[in-house]
Design a protein that fits this description.
The complex is a heterodimer of chains A (109) and B (123). Chain A is mostly beta strands. Chain A is 0% helix and 49% strand. In chain A, strands 2, 4, 5, 6, 9, 10 and 11 form a seven-stranded mixed sheet that branches. In chain A, strands 1-3-8-7 form a four-stranded antiparallel sheet, with no helix packed on it. Chain A is globular and about 40 Å long. Chain A starts with a strand and ends with a strand. The chains are: A mainly beta (109), B mainly beta (123).
């Protein structure tokens, strides 16, 4: 079973700064099956990025993703107040079991 | 409009079986590439994927929980049901269902989620 490890656990930044989040898989995975979600308190997760770098519908272009093999990066440029939340990576290969990372909290510094 | 809604008991006793229902609108689980998953989140903790059922009735389960989980679908009712046996206080969580529709490449991941249902396991 693939394990996803996210880092850092918490990122303290100010509005307008850039957030860079990491997701490392325990083995190489297809970049077609790596997604990122945002979750705010009391809400269900929201899909931001799928297929490593493709933005979901209506997601602003300040959110971006990249990576390959076992190392993936999620970036939020120019942090807005509404971007402070917890972010999860997710591996969703259709032929296997799925897994989520443990999350990275982006908090206001 | 695609929606999903979870329903089930808010309180379950230890060792009981939990049955959760995901009722959905706006899509059909008979469409090629469609799937519905269950995911849970204990209070203050991370998301945990539990199970998935595909349009062709293929089923996948979390490795750590597979002996306790059963997922099924009723396409005539637009529902997916998850049962979890031998419930424990550690299973206290918010349980979500979510959809993936692999109608493009690459597949768009879990693009629509229910609002979740909170389940507490306590005697």
């Amino acid at each position: 079973e693939i394990v996803l490890t996210q880092s850092p656990g918490t990122l303290s930044l100010s509005p307008g700064e850039t957030a860079t989040l990491s997701c490392r898989a325990s083995q190489s995975v297809s970049s077609n099956y790596l997604a990122w979600y945002q979750q705010k308190p009391g809400q269900a997760p929201r899909l931001l990025i799928y297929g490593t770098s493709r933005r979901a519908t209506d997601i602003p272009d300040r959110f971006s993703g990249s990576g390959s093999g076992a190392d993936f990066t999620f970036t939020i440029s120019r942090l807005e107040p509404e971007d402070f939340a917890v972010y999860y990576c997710h591996h969703y290969d259709s032929s296997s079991t799925w897994t989520f990372g443990q999350g990275t909290k982006v908090e206001i510094k | 409009q695609v929606t999903l809604r979870e329903s089930g008991p808010a309180l379950v006793r230890p060792r009981q079986t939990l049955t959760l229902t995901c009722s959905f609108t706006g899509f059909s689980l008979t469409s090629t590439g469609m799937s519905v998953s269950w995911i849970r989140q204990p209070p203050g903790k991370a998301l945990e994927w539990l199970a998935r059922i595909d349009w062709d009735d293929d089923k996948y389960y979390s490795t750590s929980l597979k002996t306790r989980l059963t997922i099924s679908k009723d396409t005539s009712k637009n529902q997916v049901v998850l049962t979890v046996t031998n419930m424990d206080p550690a299973d206290t969580a918010t349980y979500y269902c979510a959809r993936l529709y692999a109608n493009r490449w690459p597949p768009t991941a879990l693009d629509v989620w229910g609002q979740g249902t909170r389940v507490t396991v306590s005697s």
